[in-house]
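FAQ
Q: What does a multi-component entry look like?
A: The components come first, one per line:
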Amino acid sequence: MASNEEILAGLAEIVNEETGLAPEAVEMDKSFTEDLDIDSISMMTIVVNAEEKFGVRIPDEEVKNLKTVGDAVSFIAGAQAA
Amino acid sequence: MTRKVVITGLGATTPIGGDVPTMWKNALKGVSGAHTLEDDWVAKYELPVHFAARCSTPALEVLSRVEAKRMDPSTQFGVIAAREAWADSGITEVDHDRLAVAFATGIGGVWTLLDAWDTLKEKGPRRVLPMTVPMLMPNGVAAAVSLDLGARAGAHTPVSACASGTEALHLGLDLIRSGKADVVMCGGAEAAIHPMPLAAFSSMQALSRRNDDPEHASRPYDMGRDGFVMGEGAGALVLEAEEHALARGARIYGELAGTSVTSDSYHITAPDPEGLGATRALKAAMFDGRIQAGDVVHVNAHATSTPVGDKPEYTALRAALGSQLENVAVSATKSQMGHLLGASGAVEAVLTVLAVYDRKAPLTINLENQDPEIPLDVVTSSRDLPAGDIVALSNSFGFGGHNAVIAVRSV
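Then the predicted structure of the entire assembly, as tokens:
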């Protein structure tokens, strides 16, 4: 199981790979759409890459609830704990 | 009064140069872009053909990684060529509602399609990327170019196999003449050096098997020709209404004087042996541009280097140009860069425009023993084109019986 810091760092890497955004711009309180300008197609790519990286399943209906980076980190941490 | 259409910008990425100046320098020197493929899939699938003509500058050396990720390789090449052509045109201000795109491909996003299929089989549906559909669709390149330039007068994708690139110019001319646009980014892009298309073209005996000597495999009109060499890349041309170009003081390379498209309705892949469809296309393009046979001094031939394909084009040229054909310098540039399929017409259009503008014909390499049944004046060494008003033609023919011809006049 990864710590929240490790999950954040892993997510930042995935976001950088997909969008070119600097990893340090990916902070817990940032909104994927409003702050990071990530569209729905990139978001799905990030979700699928995160599933593979963290060994979890993020259901499609859950993706719309992942508004901030922190939401995603919490969901992944919870799914790993389950 | 028909609107006159001129060419004001050129772009290309090809096996003999990653931009127009490099490609043109090499085309006049005579080089081969064909090389042995080092990919492990050549041996893995035991492909009968071990070589192809890859772009000399990889797309990832030009585009950013993130940008490239959202594009099929064919779209990457198209965007690279279109950006060069746009910069070359010097256009700084344009009414975006009067700017259109006509960007062709023969096959479209074949790498994306087959990669996604592999992913589905190996990793399941969840791993198939959400960008798969917009990347594989054949209109992906026209759409990407339209997005890049802010072109809002329509983004079109003519698809007619190896005639596609030339058909894009036919469409572009029409868009301006009919008043639907003032400026059109025309072109063609292809990236199909993938084991499946190589296997498929091999199955139909279309590809050269000269595995031990790739540089000499593409040899149009030579007695030893045994098929075409697969190439890849893109070409792009900015077409502009003459009054639009003059108003901004543009450098004008030449006039796109006439174009035509005909169909053989003869056989799905074999050319009409008498070249009737090609003859009609040549005559129609000349009629369209009010061109007399005596005006024509240069032809960039389709000439793919297949045993059956090269001769009917000669028959058609003879029928359309008559005795003037003896005064026409013919270049078979696929000898240098292989066959770029849906991009070939666009790249050859760039070469044809430059031939008229610089008054020099590009070289045909590997012609050692010319087929006596094709007695053309083939340009095999440095050749100047005459001064004065001149016209050059470029032919493209595609599986499906598609024939497309453009005529470029000096200005």
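Q: Is there any commentary attached?
A: Sometimes. For this entry: Chain B has a mean pLDDT of 97.
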